[in-house]
Amino acid sequence: MTGPSDDRHSFRDVGAVQSLRTPSFEFAEVTRHTDLAEHDRRLDELARRASTAPVVDRLLELSAVAPDTLQEMSLVIGDDGEDLLEDGRANAHAGEYGTALELLTEYLQGRPGHQEARYLRAFCMYRLDGQDRMEALRILRPLRDEPMADGLREQVRELRRELRRLLTPPEVGAYARTARSDPRAALERARAYWELAPEEGALSCLVALGQARGGALDEALETATRGAAEADADREQIAALARRLLLPYLRPAAAAAVAAFKARDPRLARAELSRMEPRWRHSAVIEDFDAYLALCGTGWAGTSPPAPRLPDDRADDVYSLIAEADGQTAATLLRAGLAEAAEQALARVLPLVPGFRWLNFLYAACLLRLGRDPERAAACAEIAARDAGLTQAGELLAAIRGWQEATVINPAVEEYVAAMKSVSGGASPDGLARLRTRLTVLRGGLPTLRAAALTEQGRQVVRELEKAIGQRLGEIGDAMTVAELYDRYEAVMAPVQGGVTGLAAADRLARDLDGLATRIGDVRRAAGKGTGEDPIGKLAELVATRRAELARVRTGLLVSDLVGRFNDLVQPTRHPGSSGLPPAVLDALQPLRPDPYTLRTRLPGIREEARGLRRTHKKTLTARETQLLDELIATISKVLG
């Protein structure tokens, strides 16, 4: 009878939970606001807006010009051209735009400045299937700035508005198609169109960004300044761009005031501003800076000054005036791989401009690169993410979020994996108890892990860890029950390792095995297990096997017992008290024959037991045992006659 194998406490699934990986982040920001990224972002926005704008199929109708206006115009042109103008006007109102265009063109050769004729000519071009609409817009461009009667001015404005609506989307599309392959040609075309339609604020912003990207900062500033003054939409965005483009000119002029501010002397800084040239002193950024210095008073008590009472974009311009150079230095160090030096440079200046979104972006990138202070890095990245112009801010924040949760979650995952590896080759009951303690401690920390999970990936890892811990603790409970059952089995089998020597020992072993089988059945039913694939099932099969073996052994013992009892009855015995006699005397004595009465009294019982054993234990009797019983029954029957 052999014992069970030693792998009953093994756990094979030790890698169900994977550690979090911090998202990769490579710093690529070079400059702010007027760089390629913002240009492309605005271009994509304009192209998307142009492609999704609803196409309205409508044509303007020609309105009659007020009589007093016509009378005034007639006085100007004289009688010699009146017929051409009247005919052109009449044909235009009648919808004969081709004829009207010829008459008006001829008329304007002699009177090129006539406003109504120019307007009518542009209108005819607009109505002639759109073939000359760009030329119509070009004709109307000077009229936009000329003094004229209100009625005609409104008609000019309305026609220009309709032409812009029709022409701007294709022009933006053309720019988008060629801006990356031939930026100079694309920019020249866009600028030429913008000159015809300066009211298109988004286009002026795009042109200014394209000029700045090409290094023409003076032209970019002029375009943005004009756009802010002439646009009829997106004016605030263009004004903000103009302020930013002005900053490179303002920084040298404001250097003394900035130095005084960094020395925590706002009063001296204001005095330095008062000595600036008027052209700089009265710019919007400097006026905002002066107001901020007034807010700071004579200094500030804490580490950082108060926040500017300005909108975010204007506050950012003030911060840029103060710390843009520091940011550029730090960015250069960061790109060169000198994150430690960049962090030190930023740590000195960031307290002076705590709301400066770009510097917060740089500082967060430094901390991530250095693997230092994830909470501070996250706070800085959140500030940076408020600036849509920082194209990497969202990516940086995601990387820091992953880093934050990994610093909390990964140690728990590693502890789980280490705990499971400690029993991967098998475990004693004491080892299982230690494993249960480690996993119970881990389960107690799950609320902290759930709170630390900031991304869906982190939350998924925590869910997997929680599930794995629960499963393993359940398995440990099962394993400890199995261990107890196996230990009980070994205790039952230990006394018979040398074999079963008698019926009493066989009966004791049978009772013990039957009790163990009952206990195993109870455990399996409680666990819902019904096959032999699990350790408890294997043990149940093992106990059943031992019980079957024991039944065969016991049958053999019963046969041996009957044969022995028969032999004891029928074999001659020595005389009582002859054990001390000399051998010669013993040889002379005849052995005593069995008493016939005893034989007739006891042999029938032995024969009936043999017949019963032969009948009831047919399946467990070996061929030799069956032969012995048959011979025993026949012999007894012969003796009894």
What's a quick, concise take on this entry?
The chain is mainly α and 641 residues long.
Describe this structure in words.
This protein is mostly helical and 641 residues long. Among the domains are: 67-224, Alpha Horseshoe (Serine Threonine Protein Phosphatase 5, Tetratricopeptide repeat); 503-641, no CATH class. Helices cover 72% and strands 0% of the residues. The chain contains 28 helices and no strands. The protein has helices spanning 36-52, 67-77, 82-93, 97-110, 115-127, 133-145, 150-178, 183-196, 201-213, 217-230, 235-253, 255-262, 266-274, 278-281, 284-296, 312-335, 339-349, 357-370, 374-384, 393-421, 429-444, 446-452, 456-493, 503-527, 535-570, 583-588, 596-616, 623-640. Helix 4 (97-110) packs antiparallel against helix 5 and helix 18 runs antiparallel to helix 19. It is elongated and about 175 Å long.
Give the class-level CATH name of the domain at 67-224. Mainly Alpha
Using the alpha-carbon principal axes, give the shape.
elongated
Low-confidence stretches: 66-79
CATH architectural name of the domain at 67-224:
Alpha Horseshoe
As a whole number of angstroms, the C-alpha radius of gyration is 52 Å
In CATH, the topology of the domain at 67-224 is named Serine Threonine Protein Phosphatase 5, Tetratricopeptide repeat
Q: Please bin the fraction of helical residues.
A: over 70%
Q: Total number of β-strand segments? A: 0
